Amino acid sequence: MDGITTTSTQSGVRWDGAVNAWHIAGVVYRMGRREWLTDAGWQQMYDAGIRTVIDLRTLREQQPREVDPEVSAEAMARFDIVHCPTEDPENKAFTELFGPYLKDPAHYADYLRLFSENLAAVFKAIAAARGGVVVHCAAGRDRAGIIAVMLQNLAGAGDEEIVRGYQQGMRGINERHRHHRAPHAHDAFLEEDALEAMLASRRVSLLEFAHSLDVIAFLRANGVSEAEIAAVRAKLGCRAD
Description:
By secondary structure, this protein is of the alpha/beta class.
């Protein structure tokens, strides 16, 4: 993948305007909503080799907000924007299991079970992606987070790397909420002591989920081909078997 630059695994990414942007592995990244990027941020992302942006949100979440910067059509024209919603909020079990939205690794296994085909479609999109890939949801925490854990598992990441990735996502959006009002009353900014307590609690459920994963078996069971799995692994910088 000529021209693509990467940073160390799970390092922060500085694209102007980007919120909660992190390198997962290889040429795959995660972040919060793309509408926060400025023209300069889109250019920086292009310069880093990104050519595909995969949006995990539902269509109703993709509305602009007053605080979003104005971005020229030219800035985005060089990217493939792929819509891969991971969930159906109208699904009756959704609210019963997760409340208003997915917000806790303790629910990741149920989410994976409920929306298996949707999540598998994300991996198909990564496999087919042109150039480097950014996967994003709204906050860059849980939907992007569950995909990140699965990608890390596929890449052979250890427990501490997986935990660090989740904690970075939690801290990243919490810092955003320090200065900008959260869109949900139940997702407000947490002071350090409260945040640390939550991170400690969620570490346990995150690792329970990560240890339960057999990502390759999941992908095969949900229609992702061997060639597509190999393509995803290549994006992650994995050596061919």
